[in-house]
Give the backbone structure.
Amino acid sequence: MSAVEQFAPADFEPAIVERRVHAISRPSLSYWQDAARRLRGNWRAMASLAVIVGLAFFAMAGPWIWSVDPAVQDVDQISQAPALPSTARIVAPTTPWAGVTTEATQSSPAVTNLRLIETATTQTVRLTWDPVVGAEGYVIYRSLYDPAPDRALGLPLGDVLGANLASYEDRLDLKPRRYWYSIVVLDANGERAEYASLSVDVVRAVSVDEALSRGWVTNASALTVGESITLPFHPLGTDYLGRDLLARLIYGARVSLFIGVVAPLLFVLIGIAYGSIAGFVGGRVDQLLMRFAEFVIALPFLLFMILFKIAFGIGPGESGVVPMLVALVILDWPPTARLVRGQILQIRQEGYVAASQLLGAKTGYLIFRHMIPNTLGVILVTLTFAVPSAIFTEAFLSFIGMGVAPPTPSWGSMANEGIRTMLAHPHELFFPAAFISVAVLAFNVLGDGLRDALDVRMRGRE
Amino acid sequence: MLTYTLKRIVQGIVTVWFIATATFIAMHAVPGDPLAGQKATSEQIRRNLAERYGLDRPVIAQYGVFLGNVLRGDFGISFTQENRRVNDIIRESFPVSATLGILAVAFAAFGGVVWGALTAIYRNRLPDLIITFLVILGISVPSFVVAALGQLALVDINAWLGFSLLPIAGWGSVRHMIVPSMVLGLGTMAYLTRLMRSSMLEITGSDFIRTARAKGLPPTRIFLKHQLRNAILPVITVLGPAIAAITTGGFVVELVFAIPGLGRSFVQSVQQLDYTVIMGTTVFYGAFLVFMVIVVDLLYGWIDPRVRLE
């Protein structure tokens, strides 16, 4: 009874039914927005895109950041491994050294008190010791390793003959590193078994004249003996002519990426023009054009690349980039033309084109509104896959000596030079080969990603 | 089938004619004097040489002679190797290249099918990831680097074993052929592996496989009779281009491994600007490739009748 009183008039009003069944809950996306969204979701493709942007930055901005001339040769710095920056001490030019003569007072089996006269530099190491009574001379050895464990004294540098001559000057191909010098006494029975040894840390040294002649400084007065000078820094080492590898890689990137990107762009454009003409005009013209394209496809690619390269010739002082570009474009356009023609023939059959025509669309409108936007995806994918193959072709031609002319660096020609010194100096092959591989890989993976993103039929597939 | 075959053969002949013409035009555009390298010291010697090589005639006549010679399969005399006929050079070096190429194609096709099938079976599991990684390496590392590294690895292996397991360069016995053909086939194998994997995955998802499973066929039988057979078809289509890629890729491998093949003699002739050898080798190579593509096409038309109808 009291339950009835609990109802209020509002309780008898009709309930509001929300009818929003067909409302679009998310913003509608165009084809390109959708493709971009899918591409962003593909981490591999995004990583490759980052690598490609990085390589482009490396090639474009590289020369400003690393302003070393890639053509400067330095015969004293041939095939240097990658290293940290190094300094050298400025020293006065070497003067002849008379040596040290001391009266022998002791009769120990080996010399004692083996020591340096002055700081050991790459110019000269001057040793002296207390001579031994009964010695007829001393043999001086130099080793890269400690002789102590098994008496491996190393290279016999020379000997001094005379008991009282107690010094030796080493100027033989000194490197800035640690050496072990050993002195063995020579008596009437020959060399004694005992030896005295000393470890010497050699400091890199340059004379003022040398620094000037190598162009490290322009003004001799800026240098004072005893101070240190920063040497040219080769972060990735040098090649077989002592040229800076990083600088050559940057300029090589410009050449390789230029050929790799511009050639595909050009032949894809030609292919689009050729293919759309064939596809649009149709009939006899189409057959003729496509037959010709098939002939060009049948040409053995690399053989004709080489033939065209020699036919164009490379004049003195030219880099040979343009002939290679032209040869690539001449030989590589037909697949794109075929693809575009096929696409256009297919799109012409589509219902929306017929609808558009019924509504009064003209040919130009059809081409720019329907044909080109709908082929662009496929073309973009072709373009991306064409880049690595162009880079490979350039590298291959440079390898057989048909590529860019020296001294122009390209990754391919650098790898070719690196292969000759592969055993002793692997870094000369490793860096250019790594750049080629990374660039090719990045473009391939990006191409895969683009194909997945742009090709609707590939959706949901592997 | 007969009409299709005849059509393909006629197309092939026209293609070879086109290749020969393109070669002729390209070689005539080469700057420089063909006789400059010869010892054309006096005008008389020069004239005699020009007459011997037929260079005193007008270009059209030269073209006619060239086409006639190509038709008869005669490519003339070498410019730099005196009194050697180009035909002899091809006859000596082509079998070497062909052997290398056949081994490489066999290696690539076999490896591609096996690895591709494996990656599809172990999809997104460890074997798939490892093989996919290797495939990516195979696609993105240039062939001359692979060749050099292969040789280097062989040196190390031989040194480690203390005897010569496989020779690092040269030609002659079966042992010489193993490493070069593997190096040569590697890129194609990587490509075929990818193709085989996607083709295999597509087949695996199709209805007739589900039906086969549903009616209780053993998995091995499904795999061999239904999946593998159908998945191999696309692999066969790309074998033609693959053969072309392998034969031209042979240049590098022949250079690195010092194999006396056609590729090496072509590169040499280009470096020495040996006109007749360059032209002869190009036309021969082109004709060979056209022939191989026709063979593959006919093979495919025989396996898959739908192709013939196009």
